Amino acid sequence: MNASAATPSTATDSRAHSVDPKEAEHFGKLAAEWWNPKGSSAMLHRLNPPRLGYIREAINRHWGLDETDRRPLTGKSALDIGCGAGLLAEPLARLGASVTGIDAAEENIAAARSHAEQSGLAIDYRAGGIEAAAGTFDLVTCMEVVEHVTDPEQFLRGLADALKLDGLLIMSTPNRTGLSKLAMITVGEGAGLIPKGTHDWDKFLTPEELTGLLEKAGLTVTDISGLSFSPARGFEISERTALNYLLTAKPSPGG
After folding, report:
1. Which region holds residue 148: left if phi is over 0, alpha if psi is between -120 and 50, else beta?
2. Average confidence (pLDDT) over 146-162
3. What is the Rg, in whole angstroms, of the alpha carbon atoms belonging to the chain?
4. 122, 116 Cβ separation under 8 angstroms
5. Model pTM?
6. 12-175+205-251, what's its fold?
7. pLDDT tens digits, residue range 21-49?
8. Spatial separation of the C-alpha atoms in residues 249 and 255, rounded to whole Å
């Protein structure tokens, strides 16, 4: 983790080759419907409220922020990796952050720029992988992305390199369990609730596996929370990690 901005040349080893062209093509085809809460990205719209709640609690805890402050990230920089068309980048900007959003699909970046302009938000959107983040940030978010990259270990090193020394990484990803396979692929993709071909269950990481890779990258995991589904309440943060989970991590001392 670097205290100062890394140049593209110094970041090459850890930030290169993260993009899977097939994954980029798949998600690029969804760009036109990304902001439609009833379209192909409907599940992401349903996931966003609990994810934002988790992020708010995590940044408050990490930096000792005022929980009543409506723009707690003012003066801080945020990087959203795999930003899609900006479903998370825009709320981060509204929380006061100077936001950079990166996505592998140029179609998503085009949609993100258009929506941000309509919303009056200044967000720096870039097409590419983690290697496009030639700098360091206070906050790095990476939601439902690590299971789609070509080399998770190298990708996570890139995320670590993108963090400032007092930075915070927040991630979410599906767990590799029988429940996630049934819910997300057999039922979710089978019933058309999630676009077919979105997930490869064999690429899902367990919390233990992801923690190990983050530690190898020089980070310390500070929290793991489940993202579960209740028929009565919808998606919610819980202790149950079998379906999906979120975690926070920070640079390890001397890392």
Report:
1. alpha
2. 94
3. 17
4. yes
5. 0.85
6. Rossmann fold (3.40.50)
7. 665 555 555 666 778 787 767 778 888 99
8. 12
